[in-house]
Amino acid sequence: MANNIAFQEMGKTVIINTSNVANTVAVTADSPCNQLRLHNGTAAEVFVRLGTTSTSNAEIPTANSAGYGMVLHNNSTHIFTAPRSASNSGGYVFYVSTISASNATVYVTPGEGL
């Protein structure tokens, strides 16, 4: 459960190379947590979907047509609360999917805090 503390990392950072095709990766935490810190240090806007399966792909919405994904603005860092899926070799697995109209790099770190 989220705390009113500074973000505390609880696992390894994963780099997601993002393009115009959805890229979904597993992020494993070392201990129980349900937040992810996402950083987009590029000029591109990225759409992100947090899911419980490897098939939860992000989509870029178009005018008058919804898509699964929330925008991670260019040059920004946000902390999101994510659904926790399952235990895997003592770790906790999250699935993060990204897609962008331009190439971008997103860094994802599991943990807890603001």
Structure commentary:
The protein has 114 residues and is an all-beta fold. It has one domain (10-112): Jelly Rolls (Sandwich). The chain contains no helices and 10 strands. It has strands at residues 8-9, 14-18, 23-29, 35-40, 46-51, 70-72, 76-81, 86-88, 91-100, 104-112. It is globular. The protein starts with 7 loop residues before the first strand and ends with a strand. 29% of the residues are buried. The model has no long low-confidence stretch (mean pLDDT 90).
In short:
It is built from no helices and 10 strands. The protein has 114 residues and is mainly β. It has one domain: Jelly Rolls, CATH 2.60.120.
